[in-house]
Design brief:
Number of strands: 31
Keywords: Hydrolase, Protease, Thiol protease, Ubl conjugation pathway
Number of helices: 42
Low-confidence stretches: 1-25, 617-622, 744-890
Largest sheet: 8 strands, mixed
Shape: flat
Structural class: alpha+beta
Catalytic activity: Thiol-dependent hydrolysis of ester, thioester, amide, peptide and isopeptide bonds formed by the C-terminal Gly of ubiquitin (a 76-residue protein attached to proteins as an intracellular targeting signal)
Distance between the termini: 61 Å
EC number: 3.4.19.12
Mean pLDDT: 79
InterPro entries: Papain-like_cys_pep_sf, Peptidase_C19_UCH, UBP14-like, UCH_repeat_domain, USP, USP_CS
GO molecular function: cysteine-type deubiquitinase activity; proteasome binding
Length: 1228
């Protein structure tokens, strides 16, 4: 029995004894219901099983069907008509026959509704043969063989041994039967009927929508209310209405049975007394076919209004149609009067109505009995009034297919079980509504039968859950924007990611041994809920194989008689020996090994348990050597995994790191160089400290280990060292700040030989033929700032070449030399982190993107006599053992900068010449950095002539090009164009910033800046806009050496293009946009509104409509112009293809928040197979198509946020780089 951990821990379902409180077990077996399949109900999530069983879907019980057949507040009447006795002798030749009167009723199975003044075709039948279907139904029909066994679930159709089911279970097939194919057919045009089939017996039912009567129901109502509102002096209001309708009926009688052809003056006293004349009366006679005409009165010139009788000669088409209409109206009006008079006897007691020749009898009891809904079949009134009128439960009753008025606990249980039987895919929906009803009863202190409570417990034991349970399960596993994983659990999250999240959460549960059993049980239930909701066999297999029985780690190690520090190779050897010696204990030992695998987070042990083979055995080849290896998650390290995989694909970088694989701290310390030696080398525009050098060498040493495993290991994925992750995710400054948090500040430039660590941690000596053993638990983070770094003020960074103090963090400066901050897409932020998708949620968003280009006096070079202020004191932060492994998403851009800084620092040659930022001898500079020229030109005419004529120019290195992603409809060229030519504000003056590339880098990294700021909400958000890009991009137009004439022409076209785009943006987006539809809606509202008495103003409406047309025309013109201008730009540069770059990597962020989400990336299989791509999703690496990489992401939350291109003809990418033993065999 699974743990009962559902929903609110304070609800009535917790800690209840099943046997003492809920009655005996097997409640479902007490319900009369057949056709259930236990296996199918337990595997309700299995789509293949559902397809095979072909169940008919949701159904309804008879009382709800009765309400669905026709408005439950309206009665249906069977109508019979007799021909009118002759009014004249001899009878006219056109007198209607008895057959004509009979067929005036639309169909033998048509029933009249007075409120609708129309008909409903309704019939029911017990037959093993269904009526001919008009079309194939969207849902399967019930099993016909099963239906044939029983004529009817109720009444005379019951089986001799008693009914197998409490009542019918009806299934609707909308517009499934053509009424013209019935016997007898419906002959008055096309009419499609809804088909209702009982899945348990041979009964079926057909029903139509309301067939309108001759006189529309609204007109009948208005006419009647008008007469009631203006009663005759000698009649009651309702008698007045009846008299008026009788007058209309008499006029029809005279036309049909007297062949009265004389015009009927409507202004004469008799007519006015009987019926009067107004718009309603005129509409009634128009509908009946009596046109109005003006005739002269005798010899005078006076004309009077008359009604002209319609033709009724059946030998003419017009006469036949008019005759049929009048006969139908005669029947309907007679039936209406018969029903109305019967319902208002008290009001009619002093009135003598005319004799009617039509009879109307209510058939509510008849059809309710036929479908099983009669009160004699299903009693009413068992639900307390407080629940019967509780509107919040209406959706629950309806979903279960029943009405509250017929509630009994047995019928509610039957309704629930029948829905689960016939519609297993929605089992959890039905359970949620059942639980809602029962919980509402409990909350309102209504007595709940023990059997019904017992049914809830039984269903819980079968792992039934509600949407709230599913949401809780997702939260337990760490999903949610503000939860551990930082990503919502939606369809884009794959099963492997969920399984890893479950394993990580279970591993965290071991940290609190006092509550570990309950937490693990909750997590097991959570995974099963998620697996079933997704219908994932893979997750269910993981749950089945890994859920365990609650064995503790101590018991697991004791069971196998091994110490806790045993290595995995020895552990597997001991396990195999124990199983061989004691086969009867194999299951318990397997459980022990499973617990150890979970506690140690060992993928090797998991694979051994799943396959029986040790993945560390070099004789076992798991996957093709041509496939790259994945990286296992250490918590929220999906971005770090993508970054490390990206580094590995870069051949020169990989080789440089491999050269330091055996380096250690001693080799650095023995050189005994001075602080002056350190000052000769700069990284990221600043000096580095001994401490940072030591740290960087340790990082690169661990990175080299990882690269070695990616090349040689035979497992599908490698687990990075936790220390490597820590060094990548935590900057050196963060370490220093936390270590000296009780001081006012830190100046790491004061490091001396005395402060250096004597030796770095020894390089791991694990066997390279197998992946390194995972540590038993995550290390204590040296800083609490890993996940919530204190915001650093970047606005003070210099826009010029300024020496920053040695303690400045390595983060952004490692990849982004100081640059000018610009507005919009031209902004190359001084801090990569402030513009990345994963920027820290604790960092305040900048509300004003326009930043002045100026130098901050607080960050002058050390030689100018000014000292930067110390860091302010802050409270010591508590460290969390799980902060590294299971925290929130780290700042992705700071992580990249930190890694690059450490790689470049570790590669410094202190025995060589001094280096500067412009020196490209470093592999990092050589691969990732290009050189750009920036020009600052005046735009304002208000500046003095000296400033107007001045042009400020400088050259800088760059490692990223930044593309602002705010609007839809832009491609990569558009974004880059705005980067290379933008407007910035400097000293309160608008300046044009022109940027050009002097020296293109081998690897071009394009940052798609998706973090935007909403000025209205004062919140940052992630733009999901699609930016179109292709496999190749040409940078010729952005080069400093580009054709000046073409640049000038492009600039002119872009100015016009930008203006057109701005106009479209203003008209279609923003707070009050779109304006065209706003004008249209205003016109529509003003022309139809009746709430306010406004004088008509046609001129205003015409003016507003004209504005709408003008805007639509402006949009059409601008959009056509945009397409033309865009093509002109491309035509201008179509022959400039010397600076060609090929797409090599695409980094993806999936999620709607700018601060949280999941990261993965695509890499092109270069150099040998450029048409192939790999998708790196943590431990899962798969081959994907080019179409997936270049796909339009409109509507998706998975969008590119960084693109990497390689210069065509430059051999720096070797994507797979795997050791292939076959090559050695070939050489031998």
């Amino acid at each position: 029995m699974p743990s009962n951990t559902w929903g609110d821990p304070n609800n009535e379902w917790e800690n209840l004894n099943t046997f003492d409180s809920w009655g005996e077990t097997g409640i479902a077996r007490k319900i009369k219901i057949d056709g259930r399949d236990e296996s199918e109900e337990l595997h309700w999530y299995d789509s293949s099983l559902r397809t095979w069983k072909a169940r008919p879907g949701p159904g309804v019980l008879p009382p709800l069907l009765a309400d669905m057949l026709h408005d439950p507040d309206h009665a249906l009447y069977s109508v019979s008509a007799q021909p009118h006795p002759p009014l004249v002798s001899p009878p006219p030749s056109h007198t209607p026959s008895a057959d004509e009167v009979r067929t005036a009723i639309p169909h033998p199975n048509a029933y009249f509704c007075r409120e609708h003044n129309g008909w409903v075709l309704l019939l029911w039948k017990s037959s093993t043969v269904l009526p001919p279907l008009h079309r194939n139904p969207e849902t399967p029909l019930p099993d016909q063989n099963r239906r044939k066994r029983t004529a009817s679930c109720v009444g005379d159709g019951e089986q001799p041994s008693g009914p197998s089911n409490m009542t019918h279970h009806w299934h609707r097939y909308e517009k499934a039967v053509d009424a013209t194919k019935l016997n007898p057919p419906y002959v008055y045009g096309e009419l499609l009927l809804d088909l209702y089939i009982c899945c348990q017996c041979s009964m079926y039912c057909l029903v139509s929508d309301v067939i309108p009567g001759v006189i529309p129901a609204p007109l009948v109502k208005e006419f009647t209310l008008d007469k009631i509102g203006h009663p005759a002096i000698d009649k009651t209001p309702k008698a007045t209405a009846v008299a008026a309708w009788e007058t209309v009926l008499t006029i029809i009688d005279n036309r049909l049975w007297r062949d009265e052809t004389r015009a009927l003056p409507v202004g004469r006293p008799r007519f006015q007394t009987k019926i009067g004349w107004n718009g309603h009366v005129e509409q009634v006679f128009q509908v009946l076919g009596f046109p109005t005409d003006k005739l002269a009165q005798g010899d005078s010139n006076t004309q009077e209004l008359t009604l002209q009788p319609p033709p009724i000669d059946p030998s003419t088409a017009e006469g036949k149609a008019s005759r049929t209409k009048l006969l139908r109206a005669w029947v309907e009006l007679s039936a209406w009067l018969a029903i109305y008079e019967k319902a208002n006897k008290e009001a009619m007691k002093d009135y003598n109505p005319i004799v009617l020749h039509v009879r109307a009898d209510s058939e509510r009891d008849l059809y309710q009995t036929a479908i099983g809904a009669h009160v004699s079949q299903l009693s009413r009134g068992h639900l307390p009034d407080i629940l019967a009128s509780y509107t919040a439960l209406e959706p629950s009753w309806k979903t279960l297919g029943m009405t509250p008025s017929t509630y009994t606990w047995e019928l509610l249980a039957f309704a629930y079980l029948a829905q689960c039987r016939c519609d297993p895919a929605n089992t959890m929906t039905y359970f949620a509504h059942l639980l809602t009803i029962v919980n509402t009863m409990l909350s309102l202190h209504v007595n709940v039968p023990g059997e019904l409570q017992g049914l809830i417990v039984e269903e819980r034991e079968r792992y039934r859950f509600t949407p709230e349970d599913y949401a809780n399960a997702a939260r337990l596993l760490g999903f949610g924007r503000d939860n551990d994983l930082g990503v919502e659990l939606d369809g884009e999250v794959d099963d492997d990611f969920i399984a890893q999240a479950w394993r990580s959460a279970r591993q965290r549960a071991w940290q609190d041994f006092s509550d570990v059993a309950r937490k693990r049980a909750q997590l097991n239930d959570a995974l099963k809920i998620v697996a079933e909701q997704r219908g994932s066999e893979a997750l269910l297999k993981v749950w089945s194989e890994e859920k365990g029985s609650g064995m503790s780690p101590e018991t697991a190690y004791q069971t196998l008689y091994v110490p806790k520090d045993v290595d995995e190779t020895m552990l597997l050897t001991v396990f195999s020996m124990r199983v061989e010696d004691q086969p009867s204990q194999s299951e318990r030992m397997r459980e022990a090994l499973s617990v150890i695998a979970e506690v140690t987070n060992s993928e090797r042990l998991r694979q051994f348990l799943a396959t029986g083979n040790d993945p560390g055995d070099s004789t076992v080849i798991n996957i093709s050597p041509e496939m790259p290896r994945g990286l296992n998650q250490l918590g929220n390290t999906c971005y770090l995994n993508s970054l490390l995989q990206y580094f590995y694909t870069i051949k020169d970088l990989r080789a440089a790191i491999a050269s330091l694989a055996t380096a250690d701290a001693k080799s650095f310390d023995e050189k005994k160089f001075t602080d002056d030696d350190l000052k000769r080398h700069r990284v990221g525009g600043r000096l580095v400290t001994r401490r940072e050098i030591m740290r960087s060498k340790k990082f690169v040493n661990l990175l080299a280990d990882l690269f070695w495993n990616l090349e040689f290991c035979e497992t599908t994925a490698v687990t990075p060292a936790i220390e490597l992750a820590k060094l990548a995710l935590v900057t050196s400054q963060d370490e220093e700040e936390d270590e000296t948090s009780d001081k006012a500040g830190t100046d790491s430039s004061n490091d001396t030989d005395a402060t250096l660590v004597d030796d770095m941690a020894p390089r791991s000596s694990f066997d390279r033929s197998s992946p390194p053993a995972t540590q038993l638990q995550s290390p204590k983070s040296p800083t609490g700032s890993v996940l919530g770094k204190r915001s650093r003020d970047r606005d003070g960074e210099s826009a010029m070449d300024v020496d920053t103090p040695a303690h400045t963090p390595p983060g952004p400066s490692a990849l982004s030399p100081p640059t000018m901050k610009a507005s919009g897409s031209g902004e190359e932020a001084a801090s990569f982190i402030e513009n990345a998708i994963g920027s820290s949620s604790k960092r305040p968003a900048t509300s004003d993107p326009d930043v002045e280009m100026q130098e901050d006096s607080s960050l002058q070079a050390p030689g100018n006599g000014k000292v930067p202020p110390p860091l302010p004191p802050r409270k010591a932060r508590q460290t969390d053992d799980s902060v590294m492994m299971f925290g929130r998403q780290h700042d992705v851009s700071e992580c990249m900068d930190n890694c690059m800084f450490q790689i470049e620092t570790a590669l410094l040659d202190f025995q060589g010449m001094a280096t500067s930022d412009d020196d490209k001898t470093s592999p990092v500079k050589r691969l990732f950095y290009g050189k750009k020229r920036q020009r600052l030109l005046s735009l304002s005419l208000n500046e003095d002539p000296l400033h107007q004529s001045s042009i400020h120019e400088k050259e800088d290195l760059f490692s990223h090009l930044h593309v602002n992603v705010a609007d839809e409809g832009f491609d990569l060229y558009d974004g880059l164009a705005r980067y290379f030519d933008d407007v910035v504000e400097v000293g309160g003056q608008k300046k044009r910033m022109e940027v050009s590339i002097v020296d293109p880098p081998p690897l071009l990294q394009v940052q798609l800046q998706r973090v935007q700021f909403n000025r209205e909400t004062q919140q940052a958000y992630k733009s999901q806009a699609y930016v179109k890009f292709g496999e190749t991009i040409y940078l010729d137009r952005f080069l400093d050496s580009a054709n000046p004439e073409k640049k000038a022409r492009s600039k002119t076209i872009y100015t016009e293009l930008t203006a057109a785009r701005d106009r479209v943006q203003r008209l279609t987006q923003g707070k009050h946009a779109p304006f065209a539809s706003a004008f249209a809606n205003t016109v529509d509202y003003l022309s139809k509104q009746t709430a306010i008495n406004l004088p008509p103003d046609d001129e205003l409406l015409v003016s507003l409509s004209s504005e709408e047309s003008l805007i639509e025309e402006q949009l059409r013109t601008d959009r056509e112009k945009m397409a033309t201008l865009k093509q002109q730009i491309e035509d201008t540069w179509k022959d400039e293809t010397s600076a060609a770059y090929e797409l090599t990597s695409v980094f993806i962020h999936r999620g709607s928040s700018p601060s949280w989400g999941h990261y993965f990336f695509y890499s092109r299989n270069l150099p040998d197979r450029p048409d192939e791509w790999f998708k790196y999703n943590d431990s899962d690496v798969s081959a994907v198509s080019k179409d997936e990489v270049l796909a339009d992401t409109t509507g998706s939350t998975a969008n590119p946020y960084m693109l990497v291109f390689v210069r065509k003809g430059v051999d720096v990418i070797d994507t797979v780089h795997r050791f292939n033993p076959d090559t050695l065999q070939e050489e031998e």
